[in-house]
UniProtKB/TrEMBL annotation:
Organism of this sequence: Lophium mytilinum
Region: Disordered, residue numbers: 1-53
Basic and acidic residues bias: start-end ranges: 26-37
Name this protein carries in UniProt: SAP domain-containing protein
InterPro entries: SAP_dom
Residue span, SAP domain: 141-175
Length: 438
């Protein structure tokens, strides 16, 4: 029978054939045929410990004063009943929270495992409330862009002509759209016109749900010029906020803005030095040291004004784009960043991206508990030198976990090497392989 382990230097006559068993790379002077049961036990123990920590963290997140304060009365009642605590329909909210907090404190004092609240499905009242909020966002037509109004009229098969006031009145007269009247292909085409990602994905019910979510937005996601305008204004708002933060930091003697690309560190440092009549020569570290010494010599922080010009210039550009924005959209501009943040939160509810996925479990390249090893605190370069000195074949083509496994057990699976090392092994043995094979 063939041996299950062999030195790497020994040629594998079946290297190109498919095999069920996994080949090993064995250290010639290491222990052969032994399993590291201690490491395996530690690995299983650590997995259980991590799972316990995860459950504890989840429980701590769900309970406590702040958590109970955000819980509905209906859910508080279920929590009390689930713990076997007194509960009556006429109980005050504060009383229910107090009972739960006393229960938590007693469990902690008695060293009882933290309680993990069950995940109850939303009640009909909760669903109705959420649907009412979403409907209000869909039908708040006065807050939407002109292009969005026309897109919504098109979905209702109504005229898209006329001034903004007429468009709003037309939609208010027909607030709801019947997406059921469209075929699946027509819904996909509608989603494509709105530039919705993966618009053709999912059954008809999912397409309708996504289109209704898109109706909650203020802008027409299919209008590219307006989308670019949104992006420009959002960038300016971001820079104005950054300039204000950097100004406040400099007033506190914090010059961390030199790591920020947006605030132009080199010109800004030069302006700060020039403003204080300090030498402008030297590298960044020298300039920063010069500024800090000047701060230390002053009784009060130096009131710099160099950021005022940057903020003023950005505000002027924002004002110029505001006029263009209101001309295009027909509505007043307050803060584009807030609108885009709402849009991002809406995408998080997208049924396409929130659908459960049957992804296979993650398979680690090296299934070995190397973190509990006494080698774990060594750097990758240190381990590489040690493994090479002890004769590990192709040590530079193995990850840290693989090197520790080889040092402790004297064996290593071929699958635990990087592909580059496997290419080198095949080349040494004159085995031809395709570039995509491992």
């Amino acid at each position: 029978m063939p041996r299950t382990k062999r030195p790497l230097a020994e040629a594998d006559p079946n290297a190109s054939a498919g095999r069920v068993t996994r080949s090993k790379v064995v250290r010639s002077d290491g222990p052969k045929g032994k399993e590291n049961k201690t490491a395996s036990g530690a690995f299983e123990s650590k997995k259980y410990s991590n799972k316990s920590k995860s459950l504890t963290k989840h429980a701590e997140k769900d309970v406590g004063l702040e958590g109970y304060a955000n819980v509905s009365d209906n859910r508080l009642g279920w929590l009390l009943l689930d713990r076997g605590l007194p509960y009556g329909r006429t109980d005050e909210r504060d009383v229910m929270i107090m009972r739960l907090e006393i229960s938590d404190a007693l469990a902690k004092e008695l060293n009882v495992p933290l309680y993990i609240p069950p995940n109850f499905p939303p009640s009909k009242a909760d669903k109705s409330k959420a649907e009412a909020i979403n409907l209000r966002k869909q039908t708040d037509f006065a807050s939407k862009d002109n292009s969005k109004l026309r897109s919504m009229l098109e979905a209702r098969k109504l005229s898209t002509l006329g001034p903004r006031d007429e468009l709003v009145q037309r939609l208010e007269a027909h607030p709801m759209v019947d997406y059921e009247q469209y075929t699946t292909d027509e819904l996909s085409a509608m989603a494509s016109r709105r530039h919705m990602r993966t618009g053709a994905t999912g059954p008809k019910a999912v397409k309708i749900a996504r289109l209704r979510m898109n109706d909650e937005l203020k802008r027409d996601t299919g209008n590219t010029p307006e989308g670019e305008l949104y992006g420009c204004i959002s960038a300016i708002e971001m820079f104005v906020g950054a300039f204000r933060r950097e100004k406040n930091r400099v007033l506190r003697g914090d010059y961390s803005f030199v790591k920020s690309f947006g605030c132009r560190p080199a010109p800004t440092l030069k302006e700060l030095l020039h403003e204080r009549n300090l030498p402008e020569s030297g590298n960044i570290a020298t300039k920063l040291e010069r500024l800090r010494k000047d701060d230390a010599s002053r009784g009060t922080p130096f009131a710099t004004r160099i950021f005022e010009k940057q903020i003023s210039d950005a505000r002027s550009e924002w004002e110029r784009l505001r006029v263009k924005f209101e001309e295009f959209t027909g509505r007043p501009l307050r803060c584009v960043s807030e609108d885009l943040n709402v849009e991002n939160k809406l995408h998080q509810r997208d049924p396409i991206y929130n659908a459960p996925k049957d992804d296979p479990p993650v398979k680690h390249m090296v299934n070995y508990d190397w973190r509990s090893s006494h080698w774990a605190d060594r750097s990758l370069h240190q381990l590489l030198d040690i493994a090479k000195s002890r004769g590990m074949p192709h040590a530079n083509g193995a990850p840290k976990a693989a090197m520790i496994k080889w040092l402790e057990t004297g064996e290593l699976d071929y699958e635990e090497y990087y592909t580059t090392a496997l290419y080198a092994m095949c080349s040494e043995r004159n085995i031809s392989v395709k570039s995509a094979e491992k």
